[in-house]
Amino acid sequence: MTWTLGAGIAGSALFVLVFLVDGATRPGYDARHHPVSALALGRRGWVQTTSFVVNGLLVTVSAAGLRAATGSLWLPVLVAVFGLALVASGVWRMDPMRGYPPGTPPGTPETTSRAHRLHDAAGAVVFVALPAAAAVAVPNVHGVGWAVYSALTAVALTGMLLAFGSAWERDAPWTGLLQRLMIVTGWTWLALLCWHLLP
């Protein structure tokens, strides 16, 4: 159980570290505006693609540890779904758009590829499964503090998801920043949960 929970800690932390460092050092990439998924485009795209797949698999493995530590059925199922959806986000990349990679026209193209649509679907699963997991954790993780933290995380992630969806549709200049806040909030909760449950 220890190593599977450790996989959840590593997968969550490394995913955040990779996109923060890569996004800050990528020429032509604006972390305030562009989504994390855009880092899978261009010559260095393999870095984010690898992060999606490897860290998604690590998070998926952590579901076994969550099952053993909590006895819950739905918490590990939702975390496994979240992890596998991260893997799928790496398998299928988004299309170039909104000025990235450099030279790409601004705005969203009228038509998108099948891979982009599958990437969007996987992303929707990612950002729905994680707040659902936090909500399910409320009655399944011992301690009032953890119940409150999990409940607040579920509410915050749901609110940020709605705000991000609106920002994305309007191509707001702070769309990327909002997505990063949502990711850091959710992935941190998962990493700390796995840490808390270590024997």
Automatic annotation (TrEMBL):
Regions that span the bilayer: 6-25, 46-66, 72-92, 121-138, 144-165, 177-198
Coiled-coil residues: none
This protein's UniProt keywords: Membrane, Transmembrane, Transmembrane helix
Keyword hit for Isomerase: no
Pfam families attached to this UniProt entry: DUF998 (PF06197)
InterPro entries for the chain: DUF998
Protein name per the record: DUF998 domain-containing protein
Species this protein is from: Micromonospora rosaria
